[in-house]
Design brief:
The chain is of the alpha/beta class and about 325 residues long. The protein has 16 helices and 8 strands. The chain folds into 2 domains: about 230 residues, Aldolase class I (TIM Barrel), CATH 3.20.20; about 60 residues, Four Helix Bundle (Hemerythrin (Met), subunit A) (Up-down Bundle). Helix 1 packs antiparallel against helix 13, helix 13 packs antiparallel against helix 16 and helix 15 packs antiparallel against helix 16.
Length: about 325
Amino acid sequence: MSTRLDRRFSVAPMMERTDRHCRYFMRLLTRHTLLYTEMVTTGAIVFGDQDRHLSFDPSEYPVALQLGGSDPIALADCAEIGAGYGYDEINLNVGCPSDRVQNARFGACLMAEPQLVADCVRAMRDRVAVPITVKCRIGIDDHEDYEGFRAFVERVSGDGGCDVFIVHARKAVLAGLSPKENREIPPLKYDYVYRLKDERPDLEVILNGGVTSMAESVDHLQHLDGVMVGRAAYQNLSLLADVDRRIFGVDMPPTDIAQAIEAFIPYVERELAKGLRLNTVARHLIGLFQGVPGARAWRRYLAENATRPGADANVIREAAMFVASPSATRSVS
């Protein structure tokens, strides 16, 4: 069983969001949350700049790599490379519905090919010792009955040996809906995920989709092994400031946001010294003060100044001065 990672709370892999800069700052807010990379395709790893796609700061641990692909050999090769970089987990994307991903024959369309998914998982498991997990939907298009979802899990767990499933509790519509619409329009069916855990208690089952608060997360954890939150965490980073206490039981107050910002400054300065522009890093801070007086001025100041040539880390400090109480976090109950 893949049990060495504590997956009670994690932040979902999000394209153009959960890069290494974003994860570094998230780690300043929560010590125990499992963080995921953006999806990285096998082609990008095999033929691209591996360091650019895979390097990360040791402070990001625990951190998981999400792969996109459908060729068992290529996935096994990339899993081995990812394990060599030190990732705690390798996750296979079987949930993304975008046209680009479908055209490359991976993501959610793979739910129609459970044996191929099983073969991919088995190939990776045979190659590396780190856990191999699958992130999927409950179905695709008109195939959204529980029995079909359960059959997919049975095949991937039985033939592939996968024992950790992260389930976005919506079906994916492969034609007619954008990725954004696929995150919002198909109805959530949490009962599918709950039922899977009831029927397969041997599996580690993580819920994804529609969770926006700590209270919801705590409720789901009464039934499941973990909760994965995506855009709700990215768009309101203060949600992460109380995860260690509320979810992991650490006896500590919520993370002080002002202290987290100050701790981020040396990292920003190091990245700027390497030639990065400030906005590459600072853009991930836009959602930091949701619901706090001055949040709009914070967002505007960062947007207007972080993109200017020569902008330095002081822009972040200056933006924080617009917030009434940078130390305060909005209660995300």
